[in-house]
Design goal:
- The complex is a heterodimer of chains A (about 250) and B (about 90).
- By secondary structure, chain A is α+β, with helices and mostly antiparallel strands.
- Chain A folds into two domains: about 130 residues, Jelly Rolls, CATH 2.60.120; about 100 residues, Winged helix-like DNA-binding domain superfamily/Winged helix DNA-binding domain (Arc Repressor Mutant, subunit A), CATH 1.10.10.
- Helices cover about 40% and strands about 20% of the residues of chain A.
- Chain A has a four-stranded antiparallel sheet. A three-stranded antiparallel sheet of chain A has the order 1-7-3.
- In chain A, a hairpin with a 5-residue loop joins β4 and β5.
- In chain A, α3 packs across α4 and α5 packs across α8.
- The longest helix of chain A is centred in the middle third of the chain and has 27 residues.
- Chain A is globular and about 55 Å long.
- The N and C termini of chain B lie close together (about 10 Å).
- Helix content of chain B is about 15%, strand content about 30%.
- Chain B has one domain.
- In chain B, β1 and β2 form a beta hairpin.
- Chain B is elongated.
- Chain B has a four-stranded antiparallel sheet with strand order 1-2-3-4.
- The chains are: A alpha+beta (about 250), B alpha+beta (about 90).
- At the A-B interface, α7 of A face loops of B.
């Protein structure tokens, strides 16, 4: 299991033998988590860092009137909460959307390794940087784009992020999200989401059935919402060849 | 203003067709004490999870400050509006 983490980090930075040896010294815990379960709740004291191996999760907050705002979706290969091990108390919650297979990395292990292995630290910083870039883009999405573009943008982003970890086949990917999940992620009502999905279907851009989303015309969908994938840092980067290593599929056995 | 006094406002519905860019087009202007305060639209598109229910498409004034549910009936909608505007 440490190998999965090593491969993940090596997609950002070249690690030394000593780095890899250090990563192998701690024993992460594997967990199967059902859908719609909190991995950690607001107010909790964070202990472990969670890495998603399989499934979908989200970062969210609930307002006093019950309204939920989703700030991030996590897909296989994502750290849910890379920096929260520094926190004394969670200021948000992390919950699963679909059943998930996660790895829990103990807080002290991260602290020990980052103190002694700068390349590992750098790789972790890359993960955090990409997470922040995605968050910035979501802010732009909610604040600047029209309802239909927001959803199209989310679909384009998920296509690329899932493709990078080998979870896309013929422009189709698993889509366990409800209309409410989408609504809460892009700042719309369920009704607006339902209407937008209808419109995207009518335009021949998407097909959504049995929790599988197919992007029928990727270029058209990107043009529709002005999608620029630069913030995902997937291409034109020095590690792009290594980034494609399907490290996730190799650890699906457990 | 529609809900200034601490008495229940008189809420009247007036039918209107609404362009929502979807098959949802049966609407109601919601008028409280002579003021337009909201527009309700019936959810008729088959994609909706609550088909036949009433969605508050537009909220004005005091109503813009609260998050409305989707209403099963127009009676529920008017009751909600009256309660919110009572002051």
């Amino acid at each position: 299991m440490q190998d999965a983490l090593i491969r993940k980090l090596e997609s950002f930075e070249e690690l030394s033998d000593a780095d890899r040896a250090a990563l192998r010294t701690f024993v992460p815990r594997l967990r199967q988590v059902p859908a719609r379960i909190d991995l950690i709740q607001e107010g909790d004291v964070p202990g472990d860092v969670h890495l998603i191996l399989d499934g979908f999760a989200c970062r969210y907050k609930v307002l006093p009137d019950g309204q939920r705002q989703i700030m991030a979706f996590f897909v296989p290969g994502d750290f849910c909460d890379l920096n929260i091990f520094i926190l004394d108390q969670m200021d948000h919650a992390i919950g699963t959307i679909s059943p998930c297979k996660t790895v829990e990395i103990p807080r002290h292990a991260i602290e020990e390794i980052t103190a002694n292995h700068p390349r590992v630290t750098r790789a972790l910083m890359w993960c955090a940087l990409v997470d922040e870039a995605v968050l910035r883009e979501w802010l732009v999405n909610i604040g600047g784009r029209q309802a239909d573009q927001r959803i199209a943008h989310l679909f384009c982003e998920l296509l690329l992020r899932l493709d990078a970890v080998g979870r896309v086949t013929d422009n189709s990917y698993a889509f366990p999200f409800t209309q409410t999940d989408i609504a809460d992620a892009v700042g719309l009502s369920d009704v607006q989401v339902s209407r937008t999905l209808r419109e995207l279907r009518a335009l021949g851009l998407i097909h959504l059935k049995r929790r599988v989303l197919t992007i029928l015309d990727v270029e058209q969908l990107k043009a529709y919402c002005g999608f620029n994938p630069n913030y995902l840092h997937l291409r034109n980067a020095r590690w792009s060849s290594r980034r494609q290593v399907p490290w996730l599929s190799s650890v699906q056995g457990g | 203003m529609a809900g200034q006094d601490n008495v229940e406002p008189l809420v009247v519905l007036r039918p209107i067709s609404v362009d929502t860019g979807s098959p949802d087009r049966v609407g109601m202007l919601v008028i409280a004490n002579g003021f337009l305060v909201a527009v309700l639209v019936r959810l008729d598109a088959p994609e909706h999870e609550r088909r036949g229910a009433w969605y508050m498409e537009v909220r004005l004034g005091q109503l813009a400050k609260v998050r409305p549910p989707v209403f099963d009936t127009l009676e529920n909608a008017t009751r909600w509006v009256r309660q919110r505007l009572r002051g």
